[in-house]
Amino acid sequence: MFRKIGIEALKQVTKKYARKQNRWVKNRFLSRPGPSAPPVYGLEVSDVSKWEESVLKPALEIVQSFIQGRKPTATPIKMPYNEAENKRSYHKCNICDRIIIGDREWAAHIKSKSHLNQLKKRRRLDSDAVNTMESQSISPDHNKEPKEKGSPEQNDQELKCCI
Ligand SMILES: [Zn+2]
Asked: Which residues have a beta carbon within 5 Å of ligand 1, which is an ion?
């Protein structure tokens, strides 16, 4: 019982740690590669049964070529770098009422939880506003048209559909 809980907890913290490491490598070596950043190689690790052929062997090949001073056959990972990216660009988010500096920061902001929450909130308000406007504009028209008077039930149904 405790053993099982312990194993699960260990798996969880290991996963968390691996994610953290991945993020660190990505930020440190890929997002802002300085002159001292070493090349980073990606290995296909999703299938444990293929560990030797898809992880161990290519990894050893890379290390060996490094030791021998030749270029490895594998190509290092490169983050898609956008030349047009502007680090000081000015973005105003009307939804969050915030100013964001930098294209990358802006891209991150648009995907951020707080922004999406604001967006959701805003959409809900907007759709409420649209609904009230629709029902306001529909009711006078509905009264003006004498032809429709013969079928009040149908009109009611149409109104319901809109709301
Ligand atoms: Zn926003």
From this structure: 93, 95-96, 115
